[in-house]
């Protein structure tokens, strides 16, 4: 029988494969130990339980309150920014009038004093409102942090969310009918 080089290689590969299968576990015993699976360690990787419908409703209600609070803070901030700009405009006007003031003109001095009084009143009003805005911002930040801890990145059933939204729509519709006279 004539053996070819190709046939010899094939026989060699078959023998090596059989040896690997038969002797593999013996050589594998010296291999580094694999980490035990999480089930073997007693740690289960189960998903956290999704929020209940009541928990989801509470989170959605708190989110609505946060949006309302945020809008209120932004309106107050805008109003204060306008008031600050008005005070700055008054300061610039007063500076130019002081520069052009004739020291001998008593009427102009009195008019300038009256404008300074109005400017100081506007500045005092701004300074009175500013701590209130800071407190509102602080409360908003605390509420938002509470919402993040309780609600953000929590699993919930999308069907529950849809149910709550429909429930809110029905309540709004019912409130609209009750408010409208017949």
Compile the SSE list and pairings.
Layout: H1 5-28, H2 53-100, H3 106-151, H4 158-179
Tell me what the structure shows.
The protein has 182 residues and is mainly α. It has a domain of 114 residues. 77% of the residues lie in helices and 0% in strands. The chain is built from four helices and no strands. Helix 2 runs antiparallel to helix 3. The N terminus is likely disordered.
What's this model, at a glance?
The protein has 182 residues and is an all-alpha fold. The chain has helices spanning 5-28, 53-100, 106-151, 158-179. Helix 2 (53-100) packs antiparallel against helix 3 (106-151).
Distance between the termini: 110 Å
Low-confidence stretches: 1-7
- If you average the pLDDT, what whole number results? 81
Number of helical regions: 4
Helix content: over 70%
Assign an overall shape.
Answer: elongated
Features:
182 residues, mainly alpha, 4 helices, 0% strand
């Amino acid at each position: 029988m004539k053996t070819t080089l190709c046939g010899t290689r094939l026989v060699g590969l078959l023998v090596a494969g059989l040896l690997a299968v038969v002797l593999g576990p013996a050589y594998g015993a010296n291999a580094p130990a694999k980490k035990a699976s999480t089930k073997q360690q007693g740690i289960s990787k189960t998903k956290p339980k999704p929020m209940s419908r009541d928990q989801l409703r509470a989170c959605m209600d708190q989110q609505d309150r946060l949006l309302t609070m945020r809008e209120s803070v932004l309106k107050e901030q805008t109003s204060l920014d306008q008031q600050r700009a008005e005070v700055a405009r008054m300061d610039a006007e007063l500076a130019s009038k002081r520069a052009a003031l004739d020291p001998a003109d008593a009427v102009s001095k009195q008019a300038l004093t009256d404008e300074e009084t109005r400017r100081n009143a506007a500045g005092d009003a701004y300074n009175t409102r500013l701590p209130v805005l800071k407190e509102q911002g602080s409360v908003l930040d605390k509420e938002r942090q509470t919402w993040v801890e309780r609600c953000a990145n929590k699993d919930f059933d999308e069907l529950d969310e849809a149910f709550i939204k429909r429930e809110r729509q029905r309540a709004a519709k019912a409130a609209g009918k009750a408010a409208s006279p017949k």
